[in-house]
Amino acid sequence: MAPGLTRTHRLCVGLSVALLLVVGAGAPNAALPDLAPRGWAPGQLLPVALSPAAVTAVLWTAYLLGGVAVYLGLRGRVAALRSWAVPVGLGVLALLTAPFGSADHVNYLAYGRILVGGGDPWVEAPVEWAGGSDPVTSRVEEPWTTEPSVYGPLATLLHGLAAHLGGDSLRQGVWVWQVVVVLAWLIVRWLLRRVLGPGVHGRVDVLWTLNPLVLGVGVLGAHVDVVAAALAVAAVAVVAGRPGPVGAALGGGLVAGAGSTKFTYAVVGVGVVAAWWVVGHRSARLARLVGSLVAGFAVVAVALHAWAGPHVYDQLVRSRQAVSLATPWRPVLEWARDANGEDTTRLAISLSAAVLAVVLAWCLLRISRPAAPTAPATTTATAAVALWVTACLTLAYSLAAPYSLPWYDLLAWAALPAVRPGIVDVVALVRLVALAVAYVPGRVLGMTPAVEDLTLGVRRGVVPWVGLVLWVVVIAAGARSGSGRWRAPRRAGSSPTPTR
């Protein structure tokens, strides 16, 4: 450890988190939807009414400081926290604030409300539910008022639970959902500390627990991605901690849970299978493990989707060729669609992005390694490899996807502690800082024309080029790396053999 860097890291974390909490504890603003009346849930704590310009400046400062904090924590190899006091304290503070950075949590409660009311959230538009007079669904903000749910059946069940417990009060339902998110965030830390060796517990806290970007974008934003990440990490923990078909089946059920919360999080199943192969499982044993994983996945996924009905992915299919403003694909769309047509250009972008994601994943795997020996086939080895592969695949998808938002990276950050320190940390950090800054304040309402022009200028004119630079960096590093070619052990107990 470097004491100077450790002190500076703590200072940056403290300042960044304090700024984030000020936004969440203040009055409604351009980042913070109005959830009043509060009912029995916490209300506004600070007599602070930030203007659109002020909230933008505060959040930009917080996220930039957060990026510096993570970099210093990694560089200084900051030690793990000695107790749970700080994480639990941060969780309590998060529950005293209102979510900010988007209005997604309002959508969650609206879909849950429709479910509890006997409707189909994958078909019903919030603005039309109950004639537009429902006290929860009528609070959904543009541009989502006419959009059915894009979330999976397990996520929607949890949204329904929050809506049921919250009753007619939007604030009460959102607070219940915040409790779910905070618990998921704490569970990720607990699981990572159980399955990864003590030598990487400091990385767990730098990259997850004390990461202001994860806290701001995920926890204080109350995004469903935190819950999906917890299910994905739980799948790895169960598979690693219970080697054999029973553990594989239970892990498969958790993979289905993660994918049924948010579709892309099922990628953790690929990480698990890759881990079994890398640590030395072969032929008949590997086939039995994969079969058990698939069986567990099928039981849970089929049950959830049979309950949800045939329209679960209708909205996802309709939006499959969307292109968000802060990705490098947006300039491509705007340049090419006049010449080639809107539909043709979007299709070409989707296909190109799929190819690019494969290339980036290959490069990220080449330039990184799990933060634990891959042999013998211990709990730590299996978990580290599964999370390493998951981190690389998730980060590659986030980098390449035509439609990408900052909270889409949360699974990568939950898995990143299992990756050996290196360039992947830097790539993930630059991307998340850039995307977090791009989507400040985060709502389409409440901004002045000047603030809207400024933030859209950053989102459309700056951040896409950061993404393009990251593509180049990852591909160049992957092309240069000769250490990425290696063979997994032929049997459990042997070591990977580098080849040149």
Automatic annotation (TrEMBL):
<keyword id="KW-1133">Transmembrane helix</keyword>
<feature type="transmembrane region" description="Helical">
    <location>
        <begin position="419"/>
        <end position="440"/>
    </location>
</feature>
<feature type="transmembrane region" description="Helical">
    <location>
        <begin position="377"/>
        <end position="399"/>
    </location>
</feature>
<feature type="transmembrane region" description="Helical">
    <location>
        <begin position="461"/>
        <end position="479"/>
    </location>
</feature>
<feature type="transmembrane region" description="Helical">
    <location>
        <begin position="174"/>
        <end position="192"/>
    </location>
</feature>
<feature type="transmembrane region" description="Helical">
    <location>
        <begin position="347"/>
        <end position="365"/>
    </location>
</feature>
<feature type="transmembrane region" description="Helical">
    <location>
        <begin position="213"/>
        <end position="240"/>
    </location>
</feature>
<feature type="transmembrane region" description="Helical">
    <location>
        <begin position="260"/>
        <end position="279"/>
    </location>
</feature>
<dbReference type="Pfam" id="PF26314">
    <property type="entry name" value="MptA_B_family"/>
</dbReference>
<feature type="transmembrane region" description="Helical">
    <location>
        <begin position="286"/>
        <end position="308"/>
    </location>
</feature>
<keyword id="KW-0472">Membrane</keyword>
<feature type="transmembrane region" description="Helical">
    <location>
        <begin position="84"/>
        <end position="103"/>
    </location>
</feature>
<feature type="transmembrane region" description="Helical">
    <location>
        <begin position="50"/>
        <end position="72"/>
    </location>
</feature>
<keyword id="KW-0812">Transmembrane</keyword>
<protein>
    <recommendedName>
        <fullName>DUF2029 domain-containing protein</fullName>
    </recommendedName>
</protein>
